[in-house]
Amino acid sequence: MSSDSSRLIAFIILSGLILFVYNMLFPVKPKITSKTPEQTITSTTTKSETSTVATPSIISTSKQQKITSISEEKYEIENELVKITFSSIGAVIKSYELKKYSDSKEENKKTNLELVPNKTTNTYMALYSKDFPINEDEWSYIATEKKNNFITISFKYNKIKNIEIIKQFKLNNGSYLINMDIVFTSKTRTPVVLKDMQLSWGPNIHFLPADVNKFKDSFYQYNKIAYPLQNNSIKQYQVNLNAKNDRITFLDIIPAWIVLKDLYFMTSFIPDNKSDIKNILYKESTGGFTYLILNLKDIVLEPDTSDTIKINSYIGPQEYKRLKKLKMEKIVDLGWIRFLGVWMFYTMDFLYQLTKNYGVAILLITLIVRLILWIPSHHSYKQMKDTQSKMKIIQPRLETLKKVYKDDPQKLNEEMLKLYKEYKINPFGGCLPMLLQLPIFIALYQTLISMVELKGASFIWWLKDLSRPDPLYILPIFMGVTMIIQQKMSQTTSLSTESMAQQNILMYGLPVFLTIMAFSWPSGLLLYWGMSNVLAIAQQIFVNKTK
Question: What is the DSSP string of 29-70?
């Protein structure tokens, strides 16, 4: 096989392997298991090695104050981005709908995207007590107020003797950030203490484990826990959606925030004052059901005094610019070489502001990247052309060497290297410029996968959502065809029958393999890849026509 074909094939194989390993990991079909919130937290657990804190527990209702039959009332607040439904039982979030996003695949049946996946439990923004059933009992609705740019809803619980608890949620216009105040007030002349209070979100975000693959947008799906370390890096843990045992992990620090996320959406706890938090943990239950939990400080109230714990929560899409204002932008996965991913994002955003179409923006950024890489690509193609011409000249001598030294592979390699040196052929001469392009390719590739802005973004008539696979498979097939054309253009025809057969296997086999994989890839990514192939073919034609 010719060295220029080998170089191109090696480059494409390397690219394919990177894509395959990086994005085809861990397909899951989780076991469907249901758990009550009490079971989730009191189950036998495995602690992280760094933890020295006792496993938290919430005593079941049967051991607490008995609850009489209660009815549930629901209350809504909303802004232009979200609609939030609260339950009077536990004063928890019952529904959290994103107005600008949808999971519906049918254009005429789009509904708001729901981030509360389990509506049968009152466990989202739930306040737990060891001694009182405050999360299973009814709270009194106080009021909903609109003031300036905020809308506030409040609930009160006064069934604990001499103590009143108020949960107040404040939503700003044009924001996904919720400010929550938990106010504890003493109604007695003696000091009182509330211990072992917890604030919880769960299970999961957007989808339950059983639904992750069923409703996935793309081939790359996960649930992750993420939080910042003291050196400003981000620690991430990928949830096991096939978990067969319960596991509690305590964080060895109290970070500025902790996040539970999937590919595009997230929920978070952002303590206003770290001293209000004893410790933070996350709980994985059998089947991948995952909870974020804050263990709150002990509430010590002097007579006729109050204490307030403030917890903020960003619950919504991982939009880079919004998260940057909260210093949480590292949540968005922009690849290994992050500064390139950030550059790609801002370039895409700028082009979208100009064109108002993400499909057009992808085509334009592909053109820009190809122009930036024009010189190294030109050098690579020219080197391949020169090598191809020289290989045609020495091909008869190579065949002769193979016959003469057919029983001595080591001697054959020595003589071939001498021949290459004589004609100044570097078998890997065109590879380095190609490898230099890989970081840019990977950065743009990861950006296109991770951008929630592409969810629901249409391009042309059959591409209504660039975050989803092409429903007509036009882009995957187009990508495969252009890959074959690229390799065909660099194919050496003056090879032996055996070498030609090997070359043809690789020339057609790899594009077919990647095309089949690409049936589940986001159409935005394939739009970039297909356009990039077209521009590469045009540049190779230009190089081949120049002397």
Answer: -PPP----HHHHHHS-----TT--SPPP----GGGSSPPPP-
Among 241, 332, 236, which residue's Cα sits nearest to residue 286?
A: 241
- Cα(546)–Cα(507) distance, integer angstroms: 25
In the numeric block, which tokens belong to residue 484? 């074959």
Which residues partner with 260 through β-bridges? 225, 267
pLDDT grade for 246, boundaries at 50, 70 and 90:
very high
Any idea which of 90-99, 153-162, 213-222, 503-512 has the lowest mean pLDDT? 213-222
Average pLDDT of the chain to the nearest whole number: 82
Closest CA to 217 of 104, 321, 322, 109: 104
Across the range 122-133, mean pLDDT stands at 92
d(CA 352, CA 359): 9
C-alpha distances (whole Å) from 483 to each of 175, 515, 535 are: 44, 10, 12
- The CATH number of 37-55+72-102+109-333 is 2.70.98.90
Sign of CA dihedral 403, 406, 411, 417: positive
Sign of the torsion angle spanned by Cα atoms 520, 525, 527, 530: negative
Please name the amino acid found at residue 471.
P
Q: Can you tell me the distance from the alpha carbon of 146 to that of 162, in angstroms, rounded to the nearest whole number?
A: 30
Per-domain residue ranges of the chain = 3-23+339-545, 37-55+72-102+109-333
Residue 56: partners with Cβ closer than 8 Å, 6 or more residues away: 41, 196, 198, 248, 281, 293, 295
Q: How far is the CA of 200 from the CAs of 234, 277, 422, in angstroms? A: 22, 13, 72
Which range has the worst mean pLDDT, 15-19, 214-218, 371-375? 15-19
State which of 66-75, 269-278, 438-447, 510-519 shows the largest mean pLDDT: 269-278
Please name the amino acid found at residue 49.
E
Instruction: Kindly list the strands in the beta sheet with 82-87, ordered across the sheet, starting from the edge strand earlier in the chain.
Output: 74-78, 82-87, 92-98, 113-114
With contact defined as beta carbons under 8 Å apart, do 311 and 270 qualify?
A: yes
Over residues 278-298, the pLDDT tens digits come to: 999 999 999 889 999 999 999
Give dist(CA 2, CA 7) in Å, integer: 9
**pLDDT value for 114:** 95
Q: What is the mean pLDDT of residues 372-398?
A: 77
By CB neighbour count within 10 A (0-12 exposed, 13-18 middle, 19+ buried), where does 232 fall? exposed
Cis peptide leading into residue 203 (ω within 30°): yes
